[in-house]
From TrEMBL:
Subcellular location: Plastid, Chloroplast
Entry-linked CDD domains: Pep_deformylase
Catalyzed chemical reaction(s): N-terminal N-formyl-L-methionyl-[peptide] + H2O = N-terminal L-methionyl-[peptide] + formate
Protein name: Peptide deformylase
Basic and acidic residues bias spans: 244-259
One example of a Gene Ontology biological process annotation: translation
Pfam families the record matches: Pep_deformylase
Length: 273
């Protein structure tokens, strides 16, 4: 078997390993775990750590995602990183059903730009392609660690135990701040060839996965920060909003300042009709 033990899918055809695990080196930071919490971990309205199956059980309207057309997956190399507050980062990401050469090329290009920009993970919307695709390598160096590709991922279980970790995001250059997330996740996804698999992640791989999975839901890391942490990066966020306005000539589609005011109003009991 060519793949490191920590990433061995729980249920998967043996044949998918080469495409799931592109560079088989055993990294000590990863380990496989076998016990999970069955509960989701809702931290606040914005912090939805609820597995898809649990949402369905509660009777929420769980719609099938729209399928991406060939045009939706078209790209031009070299890829560029889309920065906050570009609305592409909040747009809906379509499900991939074509596991073709174009997809493989897109994955190659995503790894390229991820390494060039000192990333450890990257989601397709961050390069302007609104589809459910992410790549990551928690080691962050070409030729080291594991290159992971996940298509149409779903989370079936989050651990109740959470951890605080200082995250950065390629779409927010130079901004780092603490984000609380579950320590472990169980994931169902497809590999680059379209084969389904299930995998458990913990530690840094679970962190990177959840960061990228959020991107696929249009959730950005600051959505999950506490008020205090958000305040500490608010000037940097406003600088990005101004950069966007200067570059595009358009008003920023979102503003951290008005969001803060809305939260203050809500806390004071206003803003309810
Ligand atoms: C901890 S999850 C971060 C994932 C993120 N992916 C996309 O936005 C990412 O790669 N962020 C980088 C800024 C990052 O974390 N880089 C590493 C390695 O340089 C770092 O420690 O800054
Ligand atoms: Fe990010």
């Amino acid at each position: 078997m060519a793949c490191a033990a920590w990433l061995q899918p729980i249920s998967s055809p043996h044949a998918i390993f080469p495409s799931l695990c592109r560079r088989p080196i055993f990294p000590a930071i990863f380990h496989r775990f076998t016990t999970f919490s069955s509960a989701g971990q809702p931290l606040s309205a914005a912090n939805r750590f609820t597995p898809v199956h649990a949402q369905a059980k509660r009777g929420s309207s769980l719609k099938e995602d729209e399928v991406a057309s060939a045009a939706d997956v078209e790209f031009e190399a070299p890829l560029k990183i889309v920065e906050y507050p570009d609305p592409i980062l909040r747009a809906k990401n379509k499900r991939i059903e074509s596991f073709d050469e174009n997809l493989k090329k897109l994955v190659e290009e995503m790894f390229d730009i991820m390494y060039k920009t000192d990333g450890i993970g990257l989601s397709a919307p961050q390069v302007g392609i609104n589809v459910q695709l992410m790549v990551f390598n928690p080691v962050g160096e070409r030729g080291e660690g594991e290159e992971i590709v996940l298509v149409n991922p779903r989370v079936s279980r989050y651990s109740q135990k959470t951890r605080l970790f200082e995250e950065g995001c390629l779409s927010f250059p130079g901004i780092y701040a603490d984000v609380q997330r579950p320590e472990t996740v169980k994931i169902d996804a497809r590999d680059i060839s379209g084969a389904r698999f299930t995998v458990n992640l913990s530690g840094l791989p679970a962190r990177v996965f959840q960061h990228e999975f959020d991107h696929l839901q249009g959730i950005l890391f600051f959505d999950r920060m506490t008020e205090g942490v958000l305040e500490s990066i608010s000037e940097q966020l406003q600088a990005l909003e101004k950069k966007y306005e200067d570059k595009t000539g358009l008003p920023s589609p979102e503003r951290i300042e008005s969001r803060k005011r809305m939260k203050l109003k809500a806390a004071a009991g206003f803003g309810k009709s």
